[in-house]
Amino acid sequence: MAVPAHELVPAHPRLAEVLDRHGALVQRGMPVEAPAAGAWSLAELRGRLSELSAGPQPAVLTVAVELVRQVQAAGEPAAWVAATGDLFHAPDVAACGVDLVALPVVRADDAASAGRAADLLLRSGAFALVVIDLGRGGRLATPLQSRLVQLARRHEAAVLCLTGAAADAPSLGSLVSLRAVASRRRLAPGRHACEVTAIKDKRQGPGWRWEGVWHGPDGLA
Hints:
It is a single chain. An 8-stranded mixed sheet has the order 3-2-4-5-1-6-7-8, with helices on both faces. Helices cover 23% and strands 26% of the residues. It has helices spanning 42-45, 60-73, 90-95, 111-123, 142-155, and strands at residues 48-54, 78-82, 105-107, 129-133, 158-166, 178-188, 191-201, 209-215. The protein has one domain (39-211): 3-Layer(aba) Sandwich (Rossmann fold), CATH 3.40.50. The N and C termini lie far apart (36 Å). The protein is built from 5 helices and 8 strands.
C-alpha cells in the first residue's frame, strides 16, 4: 500500500513555519464543517479570470487549497503555478485532502513567466482549474490576461490568481471577472472560520460571502 505523501515528511516544528507568507492559516486535515460549494466553487469560477486578495487576517492559501480539493473531489484536474520562490508546504496541503500526485506544480521565475506557463496549461484543455500564485506585487500584462480569459472561456476552465494584496490595493485589471478577499477569524481555541467575500463579481454582483471552519495547526490559538 502506498504511503500518503504527508506521512513521509514531518510537519514544521515552529508556529512561524505553519503560516504561509500571506499570514494565512494552513489547515490540518479536512474542514471541521465541510462548507457548501456555493459561490466559491468550480461551477461559479469556470470560464473566468478570478483574483483572490488578502483580508485583515489573511487566509489566501487556505481558501485556494480548499478550491483545489473541491475540484479534485469532483474528478477534475487542477494545476498550480508559482511565480515566487515560496510554495505551499506539501504535507499540510496533502493533509487537507489534496492529491499531490495528481497536482502538477510549476515554478516560474516571475509573474510574466507564470502567466505564460498558465497559458500553456490552459491551451492543453486538460485542466479545469489553474491557480497562479503571483505573490505580493505580482502583475500580469493586459494582453496576457486577455489570452487567459479567452482560454478559460474556450475550455470552460477556472483561472485563479493569488495576489496576497490587501483589498484596497489595485486589482489586476478590468478583465478580472471576480475579485474576492480571503480572511479568517478565531471562533475558539484551535478553531477558525475562513471566509471569502466578493468585492467584485460581474456575474452575481459583489457582497456575497462563503465560509468554512477549520482546525488551526498546533500552536495557533
